[in-house]
UniProtKB/TrEMBL annotation, chain A:
GO molecular function annotation: ATP binding; ATP hydrolysis activity
Cellular component, GO annotation: plasma membrane
Protein name (Swiss-Prot/TrEMBL): ABC transporter
Chief location: membrane
Pfam families referenced in this protein's UniProt entry, alphabetically: ABC_tran (PF00005)
Organism: Salibaculum griseiflavum
Keywords, comma-separated and alphabetical: ATP-binding, Cell membrane, Membrane, Nucleotide-binding, Repeat, Sugar transport, Translocase, Transport
Domain of life: Bacteria
Subcellular location: Cell membrane
Keyword Transmembrane attached: no
From TrEMBL, chain B:
Protein name as catalogued: Sugar ABC transporter permease
Pfam families on file: BPD_transp_2
Cell inner membrane as UniProt keyword: no
Transmembrane segments: 16-37, 65-83, 95-111, 117-138, 150-172, 203-221, 250-271, 277-296, 303-324, 330-349
Topology in membrane: Multi-pass membrane protein
UniProt KW keywords: Cell membrane, Membrane, Transmembrane, Transmembrane helix
GO molecular function: transmembrane transporter activity
InterPro entries, alphabetized: ABC_transp_permease (IPR001851)
Transmembrane helix is among the record's keywords: yes
One Gene Ontology cellular component: plasma membrane
Amino acid sequence: MTRTLLALAGLTKAYPGVVANRDVSFEIQQGEVHALLGENGAGKSTLVKSIYGLVKPDSGVMHLNGQPFEPADPKAARAAGIAMVFQHFSLFDALNVAENVALGMENPPPLRDLAARIRDVSEQYGLPLDPSRIVGDLSAGERQRVEIIRCLLQDPKLLIMDEPTSVLTPQEVEILFETLRKLKAEGTAILYISHKLEEIRALCDTATILRLGEVVGDCVPSDVSAREMAEMMVGGTLHVPEREAGPEGDILLKLEGLSARSPQEFGTPLRDISVEVRAGQVLGIGGVAGNGQDELLLALSGEMPTAPQMVQFKGQPIGQVPPNARRGLGLCAAPEERLGHAAAPDMTLTENAALSGKTRKNLVKNGFVDWGGARDFASVIIDRFDVRTPGTENVARSLSGGNLQKFVIGREILQDPEVLVVNQPTWGVDASAAAAIRQAILDLAAKGAAVIVISQDLDELMEISDNFAALNEGRLSAPRPAKGLTIEEVGLMLGGAHDMEVAHVDA
Amino acid sequence: MITLERRPQPSRAWSYLSPLLAVIVTMIVGGLVFAALGKPPVEAIRTIFWDPLFGDFASYFRPQLLVKAAPLILIAIGLSFGFRAGIWNIGAEGQYIMGALFGAGLALAFYPSEARWLVFPLMIVAGTLGGLIWAMIPGLLRVYFRTNEILVSLMLVYVADFLLDAMALGLLRNPDGMGFPGSRNLQQYPAAHNAELIANTGMHWGVIAAFFAVVAAYILLSRHIFGFNVRLAGQSPRAAAFAGVSADKMVLICLGLSGALAGMAGMFEVAGPSGQVLASFNVGYGFTAIIVAFLGRLHPVGILLAGFLMALTYIGGELAQMNLQLPRSAIQLFQGMLLFFLLAVDVMTNFRIRFGRQKVA
């Protein structure tokens, strides 16, 4: 018989200007996988931070195993048996696995003993990991294993996982699920946060759905469709992007043997990438983060020069052409990192509109910036892409992630590029905004532009791509028509499971 | 518990208020330091800030204000571009010396020419070039060998200082100077003299250049793409790269610009108020200009005002040394405190203080 492990009652937490959680109540049973669903900004993070002792709720109570539970800090939460795997890893690249694990412990045992324990736990749960490897050399999936094992060493009663699969290949996801199911069989409860509804249907026993900080419903995920869950999250009907098949056009962008060293340490070099994109086509490039996505975008945007012939625009070699001249030709790009790369955090939206729009929108005359024109351009972007902000004179940092993403993508699309390259166009964007961004990308392609979408969201790529290719350790697979590709085939293209094995459930 | 909370937008009011507040706090703490030295604090502060403008001998000191403020403003305007872009030229003092040496050297090469229309403009070009070349050394080293421009530019100050000594005693020494160190006095060389344009105002060509630099910098920063790129490069280098700003070019342009203006300031100084290439020619304008640039919020108009304020502390400081026997280092401490408190108060522009229990994000 199941017993209630953690009960939340009436949790409320307000920040200046926004109520992150309002009167949230639900229960997590022992040995269940409990999904927490909601759009960005629905209050999921604040809620789990309250449970993990990072945030003190304004009101409401929590009970752990029937006892009042008020963790003052994460240390207290960990002592009570709560562990958390964050979406962003807190690992030191230059240290090895065992050293990284030791750093997170209050009283670390000698490194040799710890290494042995890491080996035991990793084998027991089917997460093989060599304790002596340097973290900087690990793939994202392997880094996540370090974080999971760090948690498992504490023998947790409740394991919180924040978007764990966003960095994994489908095969790695399956292996992670085996591990989680094994933990569940041992009686560990798992609080699982994700946007990916199909995963939740496959894994979770119950789901609590948050919208604007409030619980708006719960369900048994296997009994309802993904679409129903999405509509509960959004609170309306979901618009699915549609596309009209365009005629096959000329080759606009061609990469020929593109190889380049990464400008960053621990970056991935690009290795002999060759591909063509035609007018009206969307090429989807999938792959787990850190496999050369950033480098590919830099090579295309012009921030990272390459040999001239490696990048060709309408037959013209442009490998050495700098960013603004590429924009002038008609090649625009939107990098993944919104704040600090695609946009300057402390600059206004007007200034950020001029940042990449100055060339194609003719915003610089005789060296002087036409700020009036930049402001007009910014307000057109805000208007057309439904960017929620008080006005063009607000700084980029003041916008929420999703709104800034709409601004950044809108800025490039509204320049009417002939080739558009976007990296993670809908990362961290809520479902309805993501649908709008995808539609805008498809509309641009329908008008005859060639589009490259680099993304880790395979559902997104399958939805909007004509051709699909996978980036793995800096190599690009041969593109294949997206229609008819199965998720297994995609997984194999992504480089399979990075040597993971399925948990020994009988161990 | 007191916590600092990041403001969603930098506070406009605080960015204007903090220089004023820094001046006031400096006056209070400076007064305490003077009192600890056994000097009357109120009188000392009054001597520094009030007497040069409105005291008994104000008519003598007021022109000095322009003379001292002009090089500070000219150098600080140049530095402000680099500082905004995250390029730290700490060696303006050296570039200032090199500008003076180039300018004076050119003038003396033409001695005793009477063609002012030729010599004086050429001196301006030579002085500017001298500072520019000196600043290009840390610039090129950084671009090609990834050296740190802070260290290289600072160390080149000492090299320039020794060059100045060598020139004053050697190559540029006055042949008619009975063996005393120092060059011919350019004030007695009409073709090269950067004289007062209006008697008893302190107004010379360097002052005009400084005002011109303020206006040009203002236009450049607010309207021109270069100013935009400078701000972008300073705030987020990756966004600047995305916007097509070459980081290496930015380093060379910013160092070049600040070096050129510092060199120009040095040339105007040596040809005018100072007159002579002497070992004691430089009095730290290049370093004080760093304070001026930050005190003025790296904004041209702010720098204009800060330049006058620092010039005032120079003049008032000398006055306090004479009248109250305050040690020279106490005055330098006082000037340094101004920057120190400005940086401290500056936190309020981006953060606000919250009293009460700790909030955890």
